[in-house]
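This part of the workshop introduces the protein records we will be handling. A record pairs a protein's sequence with a compact description of its fold. Comparing a sequence with its tokens is the quickest way to learn the format. The record below serves as our worked example for the rest of this section:
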Amino acid sequence: MRIFLKTEDEIELMREANQLVGKTLGELAKHIKPGITTLQLDQIADEFIRDHGAIPTFKGFPNPYGGSFPASICTSVNDVVVHGVPNEQTVLQEGDIISIDCGTLLNGFCGDSCYTFCVGEINEEKKQLLRTTKEALYKGIEQAVAGHHLGDIGSAVQEHCEAQGYGIVRELTGHGIGCEMHEDPQVPNYGRRGNGTLLKASMCIAIEPMITMGKRDIYLDAQDRWTIRTRDGKPAAHFEHTVAVRKGKAEILSSFEEVETIEGKLY
């Protein structure tokens, strides 16, 4: 495992890439409503990212089963946990939830963040899932300080979500990030306090709870070999920030401010 500590100049470049991801998610928030297709959302994101001088890192990302990801964002609706492929057939409906994961490459460094949106009015059960997942993200971030361990992050997420009866996806994790979108180390959403890799100042990691309303079991869609769904068909939520590990308090490099300005703090 090779973990690259970042210089202050590199962290500043990463902030710029991540702030662009936040702006892209904010732009998408203006368009998320019943009747729009996930392909239309992808086209909006692709144009916005390129207009701001960056490259969408998801497009062309290789699949271990062959081929590459065909779009600039992942659009994961309802029971899709992650890696939903934008298409013309998926039309958003009132009451849906949609997780949009977005990545950029700007000036040689990557940004990566995800937000789960409401489509119109959603029921209280879904709202509570989103609220809990988002809270878990910030509880994980609180542990991302020098001298702690990766297990402290995972344990904080796991304890918060399992206490409310939700499932923690085990097969997918957060990750290191820098010049490459996925670097060491992996950042699980479960674990034991004091275990795992020691966190050092200037490590940059993406923390991303993927939480299910029902059981944690998932499966890969056999047709597109990208889409990951819950086995029981119940909804899942996904929130992600890129952070720099610091002494005392982690620094969040990405942003939900643009989304929350438009959508409001609904949960």
Remarks:
- The chain has a mean pLDDT of 97.
- Helices lie at 8-29, 38-51, 124-142, 150-162, 257-263.
- Residues 102 and 250 are 21 Å apart (CA to CA).
